[in-house]
């Protein structure tokens, strides 16, 4: 089966072909009712989904999914698959992790081929291992399928390198949810010139800015907010540590927002400008890094 036939198509035939598609050295068992497969759906639309994840979705008899999984990915499930939405949204009353765990256990005990489908990667702030522990403690095996995590997918889609030989030799991934009550070595991160990526960072922008400034960060340190990254409605806003709190308060989007802090953000801006210059020179405005909704706050 050709890979490009996966995108944008939903049919029983597709599900069968995906299930039967054999890749070398594949040790995962996708149709074992005794194993719950915890799958990363990637950080955007179906183009960010791995073939292995698509195969697992097509083979599933029951899928427990969160709010970050796009609709076109869900459409890869076969018509008889049970779909169980158990998403969490910041600041809203949602299902608990225990309820999710119990649902996975209950479906597995019913003898179904169960997929736990999560946006991004299940083990990068996805609590995939917590669910695997719970299942193992109740006699149920599990396996993981990696997904393209938001830090990688969103940064690439926005044209921002996470590392750069002269500016950033490391990258640190953090969850914004803990920035108000967990100790973070801000000074160490700045000294190491590590690119900092905050998942759900918009809601904790004030805490992040305070920590950075207290540790001696420059007011002009570049910052990028990427909302709905790697999706058609992606929005990229460039600013600095000095203005990031004000900018964050003005972002009115329903989808997730990733925050990137570091000199690499400026490199991304320079690259975007060079590409625009190439377009103008060639009289062609059709090729751009996906920053059509880009805004810059100086």
Explain this structure to me?
The chain starts with 11 loop residues before the first helix and ends with a strand. The chain is an alpha/beta fold and 298 residues long. Strand 8 and strand 9 form a beta hairpin. The protein has 10 helices and 11 strands. Helix 1 packs across helix 2 (51-59). Strands 6-7-10-8-9-11 form a 6-stranded mixed β-sheet. The chain has a 5-stranded parallel β-sheet with strand order 3-2-4-1-5, with helices on both faces. 41% of the residues are buried. Residues 36-244 form the Tetrapyrrole methylase domain. Its EC number is 2.1.1.107. Pathway: Porphyrin-containing compound metabolism; siroheme biosynthesis; precorrin-2 from uroporphyrinogen III: step 1/1; Cofactor biosynthesis; adenosylcobalamin biosynthesis. InterPro entries: 4pyrrol_Mease, 4pyrrol_Methylase_sf, 4pyrrole_Mease_sub1, 4pyrrole_Mease_sub2, CobA/CysG_C, Siro_Cobalamin_biosynth. Pfam families: TP_methylase.
